[in-house]
Amino acid sequence: MIDVYLVDDDPDVLASLKWMLEGLGIRAQGFASAQDFLAAVDFSRPAVAVLDVQMPDMDGMSLLEVLFSRPSPIVPLMLTGHGNISMAVKAIQQGAMDFIEKPVDGDKLLALLRRAATLATERAISLQQSAEIQQRLDSLSPRETDVMHRVLEGKLNKTIAAELFITQRTVEIHRRNLLEKMAASNVAELAFVLSKLRLPR
Amino acid sequence: MSQAWRLLLMLALLPVATAFAGVSAGKETQGQQEVRIGILTFAERSDTLNTWQATADYLARQTGHRIRIEPLTPSELDKQVEAKAVDFIISNQFVAVGYKKEWGASQLLTLIPADGRDPARAMGSALVVRAGVSVTRWQQLAELNIVSTDPRAFGGFLIFAGEMVRRGLDPVTDLPGLTFEGFPQTKLLQKLWRQEADMAILPACVLEQAIARGEYPEGAFDIALARTTPGFACGVSSELYPYTALSKLGHTKSALATEVAGALLTMDANTAAAISGGYRGWSVPVNDNRVFALKHTLREWPFQTNWQRVASAAMPWFGAILLCLLLGYLHHLRIKRLVVKRTRALETEIEQHRETQRAFNEQQRQFYRAQRVLLTGEMASGISHELKQPLAGIRYLAQGCLYRLKDHEPELKSALCGVLTQVDRAQETIGRLRSFCQQPSRSVPYRVDTLIEETLALISPELKRLKLEPSLALAEVEARLDPGLMTQVLVNVLLNALDAMAGQPTPWLGISLETTDSGYLIRVSDNGCGLTEAQLSRLFFPFESAKADGLGLGMVICKRIVEEHGGKISAHNRFDYTSIDGQIGGQIDASIDSSPCGLEISIEMPRGAAND
């Protein structure tokens, strides 16, 4: 099981939730405020964050905003004493996986946590992948990048050569090199790899 | 004087007379003028004319003026005298005296009766009864049927009335049997004779003349209550008074009066005019003091009051008074109309005021009702939140226990499951309570600046109490919102601002409304005490209040409503410094001046409602 963070301004509730999750075999980290959470947590690691909506200073919704101001594999679950639909919609739009009424039943929470953990892992992997792809893209020379764009547009080597004022032979060399650098065996695979660059939300 | 002598004398005097006439004609500016003589009459006018025409002709001959005589009844005479239409009057002494005071009449001559009575003692009143009727006391008259000619006749009634009044009797009320029959006087004697009356009031000598004419036998009548009057031939029951008088009026020239009097004095018993007039000529005026006394006596007796003259004399006064009254009444009417108009205006004003007040009260009532509902809802939701936390704790702990229990502890397991069920039940109850108390908001297109102004009107009593005039900077903004709920928000924020400025000697409240990219922004600023950092951080939490008697729900309600509208509400202290000229300076670093001078609440709202 990946990391589970609990954020709630009520220490008693926080402790009891933590204790229940321990009974389920999940070791969770508790934070008494959004600030503590933001200060202590590494955002690049996959994790599930159970956030209370009603909190002083920075509430759960604001925390969500800060959390997703940059790509992160953390999957938030919102807990609220009394939510309303508009709040729930907003939370989901902002990237929360679910919006649950307090107190949440242990079994239900467990199921959600499992789903969220899976999702977090997936997000971590896809983030990892897109980071790798980005690295490979960055390793391409400007000429290779030009060639790649035109190859993806489905242009023939002859046309590309004419456009770039180089020989067809040179185009073929660039093409082989860039496929190698992008770890793709053919153009179809290259397109698939690049499609994964879109950030997961 | 024999006829011959007189003829001679006249011939001798003729040139002198003509010379005089010439001189007088020369002296007269007008020459021949018209002289009008009014003659008081009760009888037929023609009789009076017949009697006096000869006298008038005589006068005309003597003076050379045109003489006009007019027989007049007492009331006609009054009118003519008043109108100055007569120069001389021939009347009984009573009437003559009456004109003395009012019209400046003066007696020129007194008529001498034909039978040679003394003109100073020629008039009296005789109470004639049939022979054998005995009347010994004046009081007895009350039981008799008495007839008289006219209440204004001097010789008969007036003199008799004087006698009555002197004896303390009233000549009208004390004589229930008295009737006035009119003229001629002989009619009264006929009535007596025919036994239609017991007594007749007649001028003295009328009876004796009738007997002398042979109309009645001697001794047929008696004079009741007769007096002994030496030198007076007829029976009489009263004092004696002077005979008929010629008077000049105030406006008549004395020269003319002298001419007329002189001419008349030349008459004697043998003059034709005197014979046809039934008199013996004229004497110098006799003493009329006793007539005055009689008039005075009778003046206290209202019967004689000349109402007509009094009325005519009083007419201008009466008219003036009437005019004053009329003007007063008109003025009164005008004032009354003004009062009515003003009253009506006031009434409508009061009514309008009342209507406004009623509308205002209604608005306030609705506001407070909404406030109560919201407060109740917020109480419920606050309490439910506060309860949910421990309930959540209980549930988590119980479930934690369940997860830790071994399978061979079924009793404990079921007990713990019961705990979960109970907690869920409590949660449901709380949830129901909350949803029951929550009001759904209904958004309508509304002018936000209007809403702010309406809200200020709603709390105007508070503003007046603080003598506070909020400084407004309102843009025109139209948005979709629930006016009732947004009013709640504004009132809460404004009242908090006012509370914060309770100890401020110069309170200042600023309200601004501006448009933003996404919607609009309302800012409410005060120069009150501000809030500490701790208070600021817990401003929107239920049951947390910086005020001693605060419930700590106002701002919570605000936050919830604003968020329901899809907006955001925030608060921060203002660290302004005031420059010397009182201008509010810009924001400066809080570390320089760390004591806040007021609070600013910002409400950011989207233009359209977030959830309809």
UniProtKB/TrEMBL annotation, chain A:
Domain HTH luxR-type, chain residue ranges per copy: 133-198
Modified residues (4-aspartylphosphate): 52
SMART domains assigned: HTH_LUXR (SM00421), REC (SM00448)
Keywords from the UniProt entry: DNA-binding, Phosphoprotein, Transcription, Transcription regulation
Domain (Response regulatory): residue spans on this chain: 3-117
UniProt-listed PANTHER family: DNA-BINDING TRANSCRIPTIONAL ACTIVATOR DEVR_DOSR (PTHR44688:SF16)
Protein name in UniProt: Response regulator transcription factor
Organism this protein belongs to: Shewanella litorisediminis
Lineage: Bacteria, Pseudomonadati, Pseudomonadota, Gammaproteobacteria, Alteromonadales
TrEMBL record, chain B:
Keywords: Membrane, Phosphoprotein, Signal, Transmembrane, Transmembrane helix
Protein name according to UniProt: histidine kinase
EC numbers: 2.7.13.3
Catalytic activity of the protein: ATP + protein L-histidine = ADP + protein N-phospho-L-histidine
Pfam families found in the cross-reference section: HATPase_c, HisKA, Phosphonate-bd
Enzyme class, UniProt record, top EC level: transferase
Organism encoding this protein: Shewanella litorisediminis
Signal peptide span: 1-21
Domain Histidine kinase: 382-609
Transmembrane segments: 314-333
